[in-house]
Design brief:
Distance between the termini: 40 Å
Order of helices and strands: EEEHEEEHHHEHEHEEHHEEEHE
CATH topology of the largest domain: Rossmann fold
Strand order of the largest sheet: 6-7-8-3-9-10
Number of helices: 9
Largest sheet: 6 strands, mixed
Radius of gyration: 24 Å
Structural class: alpha/beta
Shape: elongated
CATH superfamily of the largest domain: P-loop containing nucleotide triphosphate hydrolases
CATH class of the largest domain: Alpha Beta
Helix content: 25-40%
Number of strands: 14
Number of domains: 2
């Protein structure tokens, strides 16, 4: 198993646009790390630099403490699973799984054992003689995963591998990928723009925006203690509600004031907000922190009169 370390890594294109801006990141041995952010934030570029598919403009990338900037993709011993699966359409599932091994001159009996072992792991045994056009999206995704697994690489890199699947299959594959990580006990870096994928799969989440890392933490910390307004707004469905206002004190009491309405600040938050007195700030309230029945919340801080414009029945 391997560790990956990025030291002040940047990617600047010839036109001057900066895709990745001096990021520092460590992926621990056997860790499943999720790199999440909106489209164009630099997460896929980061993945491709680790794979060797993009040159690093500045900084260094290390695998097991060895600097790999100068190494070609095939010499890095990493496997990448793409968004579009990238299967060879004229080859059977068996041939797709064995192709990389053949290119590395692995003996045929060893190839057979590795392919069958991987097929059993992913439930592909019954379709080894089928070609990709005959497979469902979920089956094609499994074959793409199998092609990476069969090589037994140091690092697995996933570039939004579930984005082409329907919602039900995507949820199923999320579970299967998490189980797969547990069984393989290997180092994985998973890129997605889907905050639900990030929250449900990640042991550690790295949030990116505009080429920079905004926060690195476990899912619960990201959700409950976001580092900034961007992170708070990116996570949560339905999204968090923001109110612009200011912090004011009245004797021993502290309030958040917005448009003439004063909301009491909980006692355990006053110390943290004391340095923001009389400054403009944002208050964030998540939908699950609001109830039309005060007794429905564990601790009701205040009540307001409001009108519900839209109700979306989403089950629990």
């Amino acid at each position: 198993m391997s560790t990956v370390f990025l030291e002040n890594v940047s990617k600047v294109y010839p036109n001057g646009s900066t895709a990745v801006d001096s990021i520092n990141l460590t992926i621990e041995e056997q860790e499943l790390l999720i790199l999440v952010g909106p489209s164009g934030c630099g997460k896929t570029t980061t993945l491709r630099m680790i794979a060797g598919l993009e040159d690093v403009s500045s900084g260094s990338i290390y695998i097991d403490n060895k600097r790999i900037n100068h190494l070609s993709p095939r010499r890095r011993n990493v496997a990448m699973v793409f968004q579009n699966y990238a299967l060879y359409p004229h080859m059977t599932v068996y041939e797709n799984l064995s192709f990389a091994l053949k290119m590395h001159n692995v003996p045929k009996p060893v190839i057979k054992n590795l392919v069958e072992e991987t097929a059993d792991l992913l439930g592909l045994r019954d379709i080894l003689n089928s070609k990709p056009r005959l497979l469902s999206g979920g089956q094609q995704q499994r074959v793409a995963l199998g092609r990476a697994i069969v090589r037994k690489p140091k690092i697995f890199l996933f570039d939004e591998p579930l984005s082409n699947l329907d919602a039900h299959l995507r949820a199923q594959m999320r579970t299967e990928l998490s189980r797969l990580h547990t069984r393989l006990a290997t180092t994985m870096l998973y890129v997605t723009h889907d905050q639900l994928e990030a929250m449900s799969m990640g042991e550690k989440i790295v949030v990116m925006n505009m080429g920079r890392i905004q926060q690195i933490a476990d899912p619960i910390t990201i959700y409950e203690r976001p580092a900034n307004k961007f992170v708070a707004g990116f996570f949560g469905t339905p999204p968090i509600n923001f109110f612009q206002g200011s912090v004011v004190t009245n004797g021993r009491k502290m309030f958040f004031e917005s448009k003439g309405v004063r909301f009491p600040v909980p006692e355990d938050k006053r110390q943290a907000l004391s340095s923001y007195n009389s400054q403009d700030v944002y208050m964030g309230i998540r939908p699950e922190q609001i109830s039309n029945n005060p007794s429905g919340l564990k601790k009701s801080l205040f009540a307001v009169t409001a009108f519900a414009e839209v109700i979306e029945p989403l089950g629990p």
